[in-house]
Write a structure and sequence with these properties.
The protein is globular, with a radius of gyration of 19 Å. Helix 2 crosses helix 6, helix 3 packs antiparallel against helix 4 and helix 4 runs parallel beside helix 10. It contains 13 helices and no strands. It is mostly helical. Keywords: Cell membrane, Membrane, Transmembrane, Transmembrane helix, Transport. It is a multi-pass membrane protein.
Length: about 325
């Protein structure tokens, strides 16, 4: 019963935020174009506050072990290499290849994983998760551009675009700024930190509300042959593989749970507009985001319940 309550308390708030956004949109209280504009604001202004604040307020005694950061970063890159080698042998259409590869390795870690970790382990886990965010976001935003460029309609890789997308990423800018102030032990005035903390607290509920308001379930049927195997592997098989490897390497507790937060959360919402603008199959990318978001509410519940039941978390 204790394991069930922990799992429910972690997942139900996500379902409430998403459902509220969807109902508000269906009832016509807000228009979707407004939600899209709000989404841009959250991405450019609120997310940097969240990544900055979680690292800035970190306790030096509760930082992640280098082993965790190395394993997370190395495993994502290795996974991407394997997918680039395997997926083209299975999927004949070039625009779908990059979208499916991105759909498997790129999770919504910032929106789902970070608050989920705090929900299960408390506020003290936010600093560790935020450090992992720095590694994950850097790799995601670099390699996603490279992979989509590789499999775009022209098949050409634009190095300049890759570099610019990494430099201009707001999440990474916030994380690096927070890391610099943390390492130099520079303390901002409380009158500045307080509003930044408030914006950071608003980020996840608001982003999930917007996600719910922009969900679409039409025209999914003809892509089921891609959606079912891709998301089954992403949400069930891949997290299990990473848990086994992580456990064998000595990761425990919060460190092991962060592997679920990185690999078991839904496809990153940013993968949809990126695919649309870089020659990928935008329709398939959007469907991967929508279906994985809905299904992950169930799969994350079972992952938390399972790990709690066997005493890993």
């Amino acid at each position: 019963m204790d394991s069930l309550l922990v799992a429910l308390n972690a997942v139900i708030p996500f379902l409430c935020y998403i459902s509220f956004g969807y109902i508000v949109k269906v009832k016509g209280v807000v228009k979707e174009n407004f939600l899209q504009q709000l989404n841009q604001m959250v991405f450019r202004l609120f997310y940097p506050c969240m990544t900055f604040y979680n690292i800035y307020k970190a306790d030096a005694d509760s930082l992640p072990r280098p082993l965790l950061l190395i394993f997370v970063g190395g495993s994502i890159i290795l996974l991407e290499i394997l997918l680039v080698l395997i997926v083209p042998r299975i999927i004949p259409e070039n625009p779908k290849r990059g979208v499916i590869i991105q759909g498997v390795f790129r999770s919504n870690f910032v929106l789902f994983g970070l608050p989920l970790t705090v929900s299960v382990f408390g506020d003290s886990a936010a600093s560790v998760a935020a450090m992992v965010v720095t590694v994950v976001v850097t790799i995601y935003n670099t390699t996603s551009v490279v992979i989509l460029e590789m499999f775009n309609t022209s098949g050409k890789l634009n190095i300049k675009n890759v570099a610019l997308n990494v430099i201009k990423n707001p999440l990474l800018q916030g994380a690096i700024t927070g890391l610099v102030l943390f390492l130099l032990q520079i303390h901002l005035p409380e009158c500045i930190v307080t509003p930044i903390a408030a914006f950071a607290d608003m980020t996840s509920p608001l982003a999930l509300f917007i996600l719910g308001g922009t969900l679409h379930f039409n025209e999914i049927g003809h892509n089921l042959k891609y959606l079912v195997p891709t998301l089954s592997f992403k949400l069930a098989v891949l997290p299990a593989i990473m848990l086994v490897i992580g456990h064998a390497l000595g990761l425990r507790g919060l460190e092991l749970f962060l592997l679920i937060a990185v690999y078991g959360t839904p496809v990153a919402a940013a993968s949809y507009p990126m695919a649309q603008n870089m020659g990928g199959d935008g329709e398939l990318a959007g469907q991967l985001v929508v279906i994985s978001t809905v299904v992950s509410v169930v799969t994350l519940f079972f992952w938390i319940f399972f790990l709690r039941s066997i005493g890993i978390i």
